Amino acid sequence: MVSVLIKIFGTENIEMAEDVVQDALVKALETWKYRGMPDNPRAWLYRTAKNKAIDIIRRNKHSRVIDFSDPQKQLLTSGYTLTTTMNNYWQEEHIKDDFLGMMYACCHPDISQENQITFILKSLCGFSTKEVAKSFLTSEDTISKRLYRTKEFFRKHKIKPKIPASEQISLRTHTVLSAIYLMFNEGYNSTHNDQLIRKDLISQAMSLCKSLLSVKRTQLPEVYALMALMCFHTARINSRLTEKGELILITKQDRSKWDKEFINSGQKYLNKAAFGEGLTTYHLEAAIAYEHCNAKEYKDTDWNKILEYYKLLLKIGNDPIVFLNQCLVILELKGPKEALIALKNVENNTMLKKYYVYHATLGEIQQRLGNNTKAIEHYQKAVQLTQSKPEKQFLKDKIAHILN
Amino acid sequence: MKEFMFIIRGGQEEYNANSPEEMQKHMEHWQSWMGGLAEKNQLIGGQPLMNEGKKLTEAGEKVIDRPFAEGKELVGGYLIIKADSLESAALIAKECPSFEYKCSVEVREISPLE
User: Fold this and answer.
1) Are the CB atoms for A353 and A321 separated by under 8 Å?
2) pLDDT in tens, A144-194
3) CA-CA to A99 of 20 to 30 Å: which in A6, A165, A276, A324?
4) Are residues A369 and A336 in contact, defined by beta-carbon separation less than 8 angstroms?
5) How much is the pLDDT for A244?
6) What's the confidence (pLDDT) of residue A192?
7) What average pLDDT does this structure show over A224-244?
């Protein structure tokens, strides 16, 4: 609803759009309280918002607050065409497009990824500033500042919410997908929260991706691939934590708890992703996740196949974290000595040195080699580097295990 | 480019006698006609007028409520557009949806400020 209104009023008037939605919701609550819920609450809300929008247009017809210079919008200024034009804005297929259009506007490459996600959560997912602040474990003040900066950016550059033209769509979708994936990961493996898994972020990320798949122009192979990847990860959610919220590694997860339905839909999405010529990181990551889901037991995991996928991934981009994950596969496949040799390649990488998984991996390797003192050193370093309580606990347990 | 005013008269009774569906269809004609003008950057603006009104005469001393004109003569709306000449403005006016209700359209060039 906000996206349609932003399209009408322009990105420079986002507050106006938010106010209309707010008013419509308040009015709905008041009216429904007495008269009961209407048969079609959605249509009711749309109609109310539409009428409010018409009022605002009438009031601002001669002011410069709203830019009516676009021919479509010019028709909003005349009584001959206001109603029909307004109704066109609220047609179901336009609403979908506007939602996506707003997503692309939020994911403008010149907006920082942090601000992109903040703005998406606030304007498209209906999070309050407080909820967004909670997701990022930061103050409401910081979030307000981020929102303000994005709004200023829209205003200054007169960004119009729209789905990019076909020659740009792949490039622009790339930014949108990384924002969605980052949001998903934040939900799946919360970096700074007491709760390791945040299902609200996960489901928002998935529904954003689904909405991209609902419109033909944005049904790109990489979108299907990301959707598949998220399905495979989500399938394992319920087995990742103990009842107390402690982390369970994939080796020890109860595979009967894995959600078959998610695995099946993931497979469907992955099949659909197999068109076009681009093999993206999402394709490969989804393929890896699928291999894990497909193995009946941990020992059945097809590590050779997974190693192949990692090699392909590293060909696409030399990402040190992917390399680190590959070392974990080597550890499974060829043992700790080989893994340690592989890790030597990245021992001077400054980014990895600050990444707790790097130290946790070294700890694991040393432990398997029987070098307990070294293993503990690495685990302790990893504990210092992670913010997440369940992960700290998990590492401390490992240390305790060695000492006993 | 010169500016012209279309003064649209009459048709209110015919219009009001219509079913909501017919009215909506009519409004869609307006939409596509004005939309076309807007696309070509020929539309400046325009509004339909309410039927109620007051007419002041004799230096404002005498005030009459409607009707100040027979239905056919009642101004129902106006439009201001851009065109090269009176002739091309008249050609545009020929497509005005108000003819569906037997309106008349008067095309007048707006006196340029000089």
Assistant:
1) no
2) 999 999 999 998 888 888 899 888 888 899 889 988 998 898 888 766 556
3) A276
4) yes
5) 74
6) 57
7) 89
Tell me the domains of chain B and their CATH numbers.
2-109 (3.30.70.1060)
A263-279 burial, b for 16+ CB within 10 Å, e for fewer? bebbbebbebbeeeeeb
For the record, the structure tokens of A92 come out as 């179901």
Hunting for tokens 């002739």 — which residue is that?
Answer: B87
Cα–Cα distance for residue pair A57/A77, rounded to 1 Å: 7
CA distance linking residue A9 with residue A17, whole number of Å: 7
Enumerate residues 67 to 96 of chain B having a beta carbon within 8 A of any beta carbon in chain A: 77, 79
Residue among B38, B48, B79 whose CB faces A74 most closely? B38
Q: Is B114 exposed, middle or buried (0-12, 13-18, 19+ CB in 10 A)?
A: exposed
Mutate which: A58, A74, A87, A88, vs B, most B CBs within 10 A: A74
**Cα–Cα distance between A397 and A168 in angstroms, integer?**
49
Residue A220: the pLDDT is: 92
Q: How far apart are CA A272 and CA A66, in angstroms?
A: 42
pLDDT-derived band at A278, boundaries 50, 70, 90: confident
Over the stretch A42-61, which tens digit does the pLDDT of each residue have?
888 899 999 999 999 988 88
| Tokens 């239905």, residue located | B71
Average pLDDT in the A112-128 region?
Answer: 87
Predicted complex: ipTM over 0.85: no
A242: number of Cβ within 10 Å: 10
A75 to chain B: which residues are within 8 Å by CB?
31, 34-35, 38
> Could you give the CA distance from residue B93 to residue A3 in angstroms, rounded to a whole number?
36
CA-nearest of B49, B94, B57, B95 to B74 is B49
User: Does B68 have pLDDT greater than 60?
Assistant: no
Question: Which contacts (CB < 8 Å, 24+ apart) does range A372-378 have?
Answer: A372/A402, A375/A402, A376/A402, A376/A403
Q: Taking a C-beta distance cutoff of 8 angstroms, is the pair B55, B63 a contact?
A: yes
Counting Cα atoms < 13 Å in the Cβ hemisphere of A217 gives 16
Q: Are A118 and A147 in contact (CB under 8 A)?
A: yes
Sign of CA dihedral A108, A109, A110, A116: positive
